[in-house]
Specification:
By secondary structure, the chain is low in regular secondary structure. It is built from one helix and two strands. 6% of the residues lie in helices and 2% in strands. It is elongated, with a radius of gyration of 21 Å. It starts with 194 loop residues before the first strand and ends with a helix.
Amino acid sequence: MSDADLSDADLKCANLECAGLSGADLSDARLSGAKLFGAGLSGANLSRVILHGENLVGAKLFGANLGGADLSGTKLSGADLSGANLFGADLSGADLSGANFHRANLRGANLKGNNLSGANLSGANLSDADLSHANLEGVDLSITNLIGANLRVANLKYAVLAGANLFDAILLNANLEGADLTYAALEGATLSCATLAKVTLYGTNFQRADFSGGVFLTDQGWNAADLRGAILPKPGLPGADELRTAIFSQLKNDASPLD
């Protein structure tokens, strides 16, 4: 059934296990209750389909179009969604552990509270996505587009964010302990009450970042970060002294004559 036109088809409760559906047009198809375990769906058009709670463990969905799809509660652990289009998709409550989202388009997707442990999100577009309360511990987010993403209370402990773009991202109360922020751009990001202990900060851009509510950090490495225009915590709040010391040190070095 590769490249078949099944758009708007009624496939409720259909047995499509291990079916070859690569390149098929399943847009707007009714798939509730369908058995899709092991189905080949690479390059398939699944835009706007409802797959709430379905079992897609290990599914081959690379290059598939899932724009606007309802994947809430779906089992997608170990699935290959590399290069897939998930623009505006609802993935809330889905099991995405170990899934491959390399270079996938997840712009505006709902990933609130998801378990993404072991997932690969490198190079993905997550701009304006909702990742609040998500578990991203140790996840590869290198060179990822997270512009305007909602990462409130997200667990980013030991995540790899090297080269990631977090311009205007919301990281209130997020845990970034041990994260790699090498050359990451956090310009204008909101970081109040975030944990930034033991992070790698070489070449990190915090210009205009908002630390006003305090931030939990260690003082190592902050001299290597760009803090120009950052909104600092008031004296007495966590991180206030460390950030002011880092900025003072940078200003002092900038004013030093060349050797």
